[in-house]
Amino acid sequence: MTRRSPARAPPCAVTGSVILGLLRVVTASIVICTHNRARILARAVDEAVSQARLAGAEVVVVDNASSDDTPAVLAGLVEHAAPTARAVREPRLGLSAARNCGLAHARGALAVFLDDDAVPRPGWLPALLAPFASPQVDCVGGRIVLRFPGAPPPWLSLPLEKALSAYDLGPTSRPYTEDDEYPYGANISFRIATVRALGGFSTTVGVRGRRQFQHEETDLCCRITRAGGTLVYAPDAVVDHDVLAERLTPKWFIRRRWQHGQSAAIFDLRNRGIRPAFGRMRRIYRPYLMSVPYFPREPVDAGRLLDECRRREALGYLFGLLGGVPRLRMLRRDMTAPARPQAGSPLP
């Protein structure tokens, strides 16, 4: 099968011990994208470096247009972890742009994405890499366990925890089916040749500064599936995802679900088209539009808060459709993709 030419590397600047790093042959590249998270970045980087050294991998930290002390913090972390760790800077704000920058500078055949507020558990990296021994596997996702700064609020229900990136498909490793939710970006890995052949992460979707849309990795997973690729769930690849205290408010969840709805509409328009997107609006979201609005006050009613979050997501989806349909051609400008690239090589 034919391959597309690899996507051109984005204009991001390299820092750190590059010359020493170029002499190493790496099995995989752990990519950590960060934006204004200087105070929490070290824990994720330190544990990633520890596991990378054991696995013959590298760590690439992408500073995505940070305006805080991130560059200085990264310089110290990279100096301490050289040559295993390198730092690069992506000046274009946006998680997809940052991830594409990480892909451009990765030297391994596999890219492992880890959030800057997630800390891997022992054995995480080997468990995530093992399925790639099969050349048919293009993507592997693992479990994400929430770690709270204290006792979670009593109104936080299990359905709401997904907004904090909780992810668990059970104890069994298996290929993904059409009924499974795609893995989350806090703990996901890809075969780089496949991602490059499909054009990388789309900058049309995803987080960009204060616009907290999602679906960057979901969009890419969908394109991999459509191209005939295989995705595998690895339950033993576990990360603990720190929940920032400022997120544990009803206001944050309501806004998050509103933005998720808008993001989901863009994703559906891009990947499924107008008629399926409006069909989803009727089947899934329309009943929630009829819900009575709820403005949380103490004590917060958990059931009514969940209903309000669902209502806001439905409204966000509707607004996303109405705003997205006139821009459909622009939303789909990077959707042309070849058949699945030739299978990669197994891990050495």
SS element count, helices = 12
Query: What is the CATH fold-level name of the largest domain?
Result: Spore Coat Polysaccharide Biosynthesis Protein SpsA, Chain A
Uncertain regions: pLDDT < 50 for 5+ in a row? 1-11, 14-24, 337-348
Radius of gyration: 20 Å
Q: Indicate the CATH class of the largest domain.
A: Alpha Beta
Number of domains: 2
Largest sheet: 10 strands, mixed
The CATH architecture term of the largest domain is Alpha-Beta Complex
Q: What would the principal axes of the Cα set say about the shape? A: globular
What can you tell me about this protein's structure?
With 348 residues, this protein is an alpha/beta fold. It has 2 domains: 13-244, Spore Coat Polysaccharide Biosynthesis Protein SpsA, Chain A (Alpha-Beta Complex); 250-331, no CATH class. Helix content is 39%, strand content 18%. Strands 1, 2, 3, 4, 5, 6, 7, 8, 9 and 10 form a 10-stranded mixed sheet that branches. The two termini are 23 Å apart.
Short recap of the structure:
This protein has 348 residues and is of the alpha/beta class. Helix content is 39%, strand content 18%. It has two domains: 13-244, Spore Coat Polysaccharide Biosynthesis Protein SpsA, Chain A; 250-331, no CATH class.
